[in-house]
Amino acid sequence: MLNIQENVSLQPYNTFGVAVQARFFVTVDDESRLLSALEWAQAEDQPLLLLGGGSNMLFTKDWEGLVIKLELRGREIAAEDDDQVAVRFAAGENWHESVLWTVEQGWGGIENLSLIPGQIGTAPIQNIGAYGVEVKDTIVSVEAVSIDDRVKKVFNNKDCQFGYRDSVFKRAEKGKWIITAVTFKLAKTPVLNLSYGAIQETLRAQNVENPTVADISQAVIAIRQSKLPDPKEIGNGGSFFKNPVVEDSVVDRLRETYPEMPFYEVKKAVSGEQRAEYKIPAAWLIDTAGWKGHRAGNVGVHDRQALVLVNHGGGTGAEVWALAQEIQADVESKFGIRLEPEINII
Ligand SMILES: Cc1cc2nc3c(=O)[nH]c(=O)nc-3n(C[C@H](O)[C@H](O)[C@H](O)COP(=O)(O)OP(=O)(O)OC[C@H]3O[C@@H](n4cnc5c(N)ncnc54)[C@H](O)[C@@H]3O)c2cc1C
Q1: 286 C-alpha to center of ligand 1: Å?
Q2: Domains defined for the chain, CATH in brackets
């Protein structure tokens, strides 16, 4: 039986903590209830919104339709050999708890992604990444149900067309699928990714000489706790904008005025050839434009992390979005670069 509730506050379900309402709201914890909820929305002609952990969305208004809160649970070993293990997690499993479980087993692959909020099912959508690792490198397949005709499909890694904070689920297939499970390939003899300087520094400070996946996970947790505001204390959605990726001519132009501007080379495959592009930290652009710590009523820019917009309490999503657009326009006028939101604006 579906328990569809009416006029439900979404404030507890979004990490910005903005007070909006869903006209209809249902929690689904198995696939048959999910299909019934889909049928109901179609029969009642109600627009559909899927809600995972609510850590990558900014509600600017009430949702005049059905919100489906996904709570599908479970994990199983799908395949295993001497070197690798494939683990299938249901979409509603908590991301960080799932990472900690893989770390406890001593399996490597997603330890650098510890403490990212949200659920398993949303991790592929924007190809979550942190501290030198992107989830695309461990994803074997993504199972999903079509919203239109409720047919199931398995997307293999290539089908997902992963890119930087990007996948087919944000482009051609946007809004067409409900992800129900994800299978990851993890290494039994982990190859650690220590490319990120802060991880090495943290391990050195802890006198860890031969790190394990558990040491990496703990180092990442410590770094994140020291740098990023906890949504339980101050409403936020993590990085609000993506780091812009530009051509060398843009870097050259900006470095004439800002010789200290940081940038990182990223390789992009174009028609089978590797082309160099450059990622500029959006946080540096926003900070240099003078926005860090800026406050506009109840919302603002975090005072230690310029990429994070915050709700100091009582702020609305519309206020956060208005501030984000002001920052976008200012950064564009100062640097000629248009910042794109990483967060889903609802
Ligand atoms: C403090 C903080 C730190 C963060 N750090 C990082 C980071 O380091 N790296 C990073 O990549 N991200 C980071 N994020 C962003 C966020 O955690 C990730 O994008 C996460 O994957 C979102 O998961 P969620 O379940 O909360 O998604 P939600 O916000 O619930 O949903 C995101 C989008 O997916 C849709 N959706 C939800 N569930 C499904 C489903 N099962 N099938 C299809 N569509 C669905 C929603 O409608 C929405 O459009 C951070 C966020 C916060 C608040």
Answers
A1: 22
A2: 5-70 (3.30.43.10), 75-187 (3.30.465.10), 235-345 (3.90.78.10)
